[in-house]
Amino acid sequence: MTDAPTTAPVARAATAGEVLAGYLTAQAGAFLRALPQAVGEAGSRPGALPASAQAADDLLRAVRRVGGALHTFAAAFDPAWAQESRTELRWLLNLLAQEPGYRRRSTRLLGALDSLADTAPDGAGMLAGHAGAPKARALLERQLTLARTRAHTALLQELRSARLHALADRMTLLAGDVPLVAPAAAEPAEALLPQTGTALGALVATAERLPWQRSAEAYAGAGLHRLGGPVGEPGTVPAARGSAADADAALAADDAPWLRARILVKRARYALEVCGAPGGELLELDRVLGRHQEASDAAATVATAARTPRITPATAYVLGVVHADQRLDVEAARYAFGRQWPAVAPGLVGSAAVVAD
Amino acid sequence: MTDAPTTAPVARAATAGEVLAGYLTAQAGAFLRALPQAVGEAGSRPGALPASAQAADDLLRAVRRVGGALHTFAAAFDPAWAQESRTELRWLLNLLAQEPGYRRRSTRLLGALDSLADTAPDGAGMLAGHAGAPKARALLERQLTLARTRAHTALLQELRSARLHALADRMTLLAGDVPLVAPAAAEPAEALLPQTGTALGALVATAERLPWQRSAEAYAGAGLHRLGGPVGEPGTVPAARGSAADADAALAADDAPWLRARILVKRARYALEVCGAPGGELLELDRVLGRHQEASDAAATVATAARTPRITPATAYVLGVVHADQRLDVEAARYAFGRQWPAVAPGLVGSAAVVAD
Asked: Are A234 and A228 a contacting pair, CB within 8 Å?
């Protein structure tokens, strides 16, 4: 990645305001087109997957991009309006992302369990034919269905709320007229580059503090053993308290900087999009960190399920295997990141330096 | 590895018989020196680790080497004598290897559990502070101590047996006079090379049928998921029978060709030793396959422990995590093998072809 593709498309537009307005108008339009269908889907029974499942994805896409642009290029907008908009978009994002998140987690965990318990001669798993496998499967399915139903109910309630209507109105305004701040918006389009550079720089700074070098070594045990904070930040894992929550806290603290890196990858991707620059390598990092997050969340779900009262030892044993298997996938995602990062980082550092110059 | 170092030391000796006699006399001498101390140690209380633990290792070393040479260079010996000797050496090997094997397994499993349950801020494990960890640890320790004590008792009984005295007499004879068969022994030392080539060829043939290419890809899930027979041998995993033993059988069938490869690596190593050729790369493969075997055995021990009646769900859950962690180590060992093999194989194929020419 060099600065050439970053600057070229930006240079074609006259002002920073025009570039931002073009991007945000398009995203707000996508938001408004997807909203009715996505809301229609959410209004149907849980688990239903009509053609408009695509609409929910489109809506999430637009919400993330508008939020990202408002964050990275904050200087060009009215600060109070931008801050409010980001808060409302984040609220909708959390609301919309939950049900599909539980659906994906269900697919992931039940798929992993079925693979581990597979009895096919050429594809058996280490839990092949285990008595606890059907019970553990039923338990996970029940708990995830319950969580999904709750998320669906919460979404339904909010769809009737004044808050969503206000956000839709806000997006309608944005689709027509982006509330830019005159001095910053009037600058030439190149004025967007330092802010894009800041987004890239934030990603590089955070990623470099990840233990990616250790992770780039296969089977170094990073997902199950020797959890710790990012490099140079010892003590992010809470001190031992002798309860089961210790492990949850240690795992959450270990995963947190990776989840943070994913947010920064997305922000950097959207900033490059605004500038019309290619971000293919960031898309790949985003996918890998997405897999990290889903495996991490799925592992936590299994750990919680294993604390369900009155389960049988066989069920608990199977959940232990599935939990470790998900942590193994966390480790595998970190390995993939550790292999990709050294190839991607120099380009990002270069771009960040050039555009922030 | 080329044929040059393989042939050079052999060429210095006059006949095949002299080379074999030199090797076997030295190994039988090592056997006889180590035996009294090793037996003395075995006669002490279980778990005692006097300085003569080294003697038991030395004894095992000699037993393996004599057995390997008698197998690979069988044509040079009286067939009935060689066959009997190998049977008796294998009996002693199994007897001697058990107690140290359980000791290593105990170290491995309790170490893994302690690492998984570690609560140190910079080295916490995914079971940090878990209520089931101390119980699972006590269960594993109790079962492994019991197994070790049984192995020790069995060894003590056999130490008084006429069978061991007969084997010691056999080794005493071997240290003085190796019972060679005249025609084969009288051939020039180069006559040992085709047999060494056969040992290398057997290793190459078996290793090439291992799924090492799949294993060379990190985190492809080979140790936990998608177990199967070696390439071209589907159906080695027994058909599903819907019992917990299914998983044990599937795992055992999946590991079997790797364990077989380890035996052939050792045979090839000892054959090269007889010829005075370097076998450093085989030593490394032997280590990796040794790690595979110990992780595989340890995993099976945990699976058995998890079927102990009346354990708590928390204990069972921890055992599930530890079991998966050991299978992960199986996968890691296969990965290491898959990375080493392509570098080692061409040399072995070349040596096998040259020496068998």
From this structure: yes
A356 SS3 class = coil
What is the Rg, in whole angstroms, of the alpha carbon atoms belonging to chain B?
Answer: 22
The predicted model gives B315-329 an average pLDDT of 97
Tell whether B315 lies on the interface with A, counting CB pairs under 8 A: yes
- The SS3 of residue B13 is coil
Residues of B in contact with A238 (CB under 8 A): 121
Give the DSSP H or E segment for A281.
helix A280-305
Q: What is the pLDDT of residues A254-299, one digit of tens each?
A: 999 999 999 999 999 999 999 998 888 999 999 999 999 999 999 9
Rounded Cα gap, residues A270 and A273, in angstroms: 5
Of A128, A321, A329, the CB nearest to B246: A128
Distance, in angstroms, between B267 CA and closest chain A CA? 29
* Interchain contact A354–B (C-beta under 8 A): no
Q: Which residues in B lie closer than 8 A to residue A325 (C-beta atoms)? A: 224-225, 324
Contacts of A41 (CB under 8 A, 6+ apart): A48, A50, A52, A53, A55, A56
- Interchain contact, B246 vs A327, CB within 8 Å: no
Distance CA A286, CA A262 (A): 6
Name residue B303's amino acid. A
> Out of A226, A254, A313, whose CB is closest to B316?
A313
What lies within 8 Å, CB to CB, of A19 at 6+ separation is: A10, A13, A189, A192, A274, A275
DSSP alpha helix (H) spans, chain B: 3-12, 16-43, 53-72, 79-116, 132-159, 162-176, 182-186, 192-208, 212-215, 245-274, 280-305, 313-355
Residues recorded for chain B? 357
pLDDT recorded at residue A232 = 42
Asked if B123's CB is within 8 angstroms of A227's CB, the reply is yes
Domains of chain B: 3-355 (1.40.20.10)
Cα–Cα distance measured from residue A186 to residue B104, given in angstroms and rounded to the nearest whole number:
73
Interface residue B220 vs chain A (CB under 8 A): no
Q: Which residues of chain A have pLDDT under 70?
A: 1-13, 41-52, 228-245, 352-357
The answer to whether A228 contacts B335, with C-beta atoms less than 8 Å apart, is no
Task: Out of A207-221, B38-52, B68-82, B225-239, pick the least confident.
Answer: B225-239
Q: Does B126 touch chain A (CB under 8 A)?
A: yes
Q: Does A306 sit within 8 Å of B313, measured CB to CB?
A: yes
Q: How far is CA B266 from the centre of its chain?
A: 8
DSSP string, B98-142: HHHHHHHHHHHHHHHHHHHT---TTTB-TTTT-THHHHHHHHHHH
Tokens of B122: 């910079």
Helix axes A313-355, B313-355, angle to 10 degrees: 70
